[in-house]
Amino acid sequence: MLGKTIFYAAAMSVGVIGQAADQVPGGHPNIIVIVADDLGHGDLSLTGSEEIKTPNIDSLAANGSFFTDAYISAPVCLPSRMGLMTGTYQERFGVQTLAGPGGTRDYGIPADRPTLAQELKADGYTTGAVGKWHLGEREEYLPNQKGFDDFYGFIGGSLPYFPDKPGMIWHNERNVEKTQYMTDDFGERAAAFIEENRGDPFFLYLAFSAVHLPLEATEKYIEPYNHIKDRSRRTYAAMTTAMDINIGLVLDALRKNGLYENTLVFFVSDNGGFPRFWASNAPFQGGKYVLYEGGIRTPFLVQWPAGGVPAARRFSEPVSALDIFPTALAAAGAEYSGPHALDGVNLLPLLRGQTDKAPHERLYWRYGPYMCAMREGDFKILKNGTGDNKTPQWALYDIVNDPGETMDLSTRMPDKFSAMKNAFTVWDEALPEPDFIDQRLVEGIAWWEVKKKGHEPVQEQD
């Protein structure tokens, strides 16, 4: 199933992304990108949760830096992961939404968009992916074809967590049996990858499926939360703790092997959580599937003690998960080989105090035919067509003073409003037609707002 790795030669270069000066005397840093799935922004103790304890995730902020105004490039996992893995807006290569139930499975990262794994592999890194892929199911789109030497996980959007339930785990070309709770399995496999590759620089992409559906956790993780009355919320909290404990396992593996100081670690979520069912995106409105802040704002943590990333520092400049790609390349001293310019920005100068300039003038989103948004400085414009609303009107919000997006300022600031709409139109009109659209959006089905017995969302499918 998973075949030989393919390298893509660049047709042209867009310049040097990383310079030797971005490295440290210890040589090439190891690089780890940790991605949570459907995590509520308010469900870390770091972001204000008094209910769910996440000491290991919090430690990344204590020993590194926390971007408070960070975003993912889509409110759902497939497009947001494509943006992260390529460093470019996925809309630029025809991906805006999920495929949806019954939709095409003929999607993947195109050959002219090299992945972070391909770029780092070409620079001498050993590359590994553990967990959820969801970046294409055809042979040419699978992990070993996209720069990963080693893959352990599943290919689609979700999988049951318990070993006695159906679902296929792959280790490269082999199907292997699930032997334990999947979050624990992924944590142990990630720690083993670190141990096996401790002698050479490595890139590890650790994409947990937690806390995505199905809501499943073992009793040892549920027990501390038995006081939570709502069953779904209780299980969700347990799944979050399971992920946090396994992130601790990975950090312990770095310490054990003397790699902690010179390993660059990123942590983000792929989109917001489900606020109507179990997750909290406080203080933001909305969640997964919509472009309110609750759907696209992510906790973004960066730790690299030997690389000059300050400890216990918060940055309020708007940044994006797209920035992980060029920041990692810069840390590795690698050059980007792709034929298209990156949309992400190297964050190391900001992190190291070498500049106080905001990395982005604007950030953009296009999610299907009726939802789009743009952030510029403290302000955001939003067109949020959901349900039967196929003719939504633009609104303008001051995100810094109104993070809940409750007060539309479009009539009070007409000049600002008009200029921002014009800037978005320039970006939007340069996009190609999408390769596919989740038809539920076209049909006006707000499936994420509907409950059924057991608190499971109707038609929740990636």
UniProtKB/TrEMBL annotation:
Keywords: Calcium, Hydrolase, Metal-binding, Transferase. Pfam families: Sulfatase. Belongs to the sulfatase family. The lineage of its organism: Bacteria, Pseudomonadati, Verrucomicrobiota, Opitutia, Puniceicoccales. Transmembrane segments: none annotated. It comes from the Bacteria. This is Sulfatase-like hydrolase/transferase. The keyword Cytoplasm does not apply. Residues 29-334 form the Sulfatase N-terminal domain. One of its GO terms (molecular function) is metal ion binding. PANTHER family: ARYLSULFATASE FAMILY MEMBER, ENDO-4-O-SULFATASE.
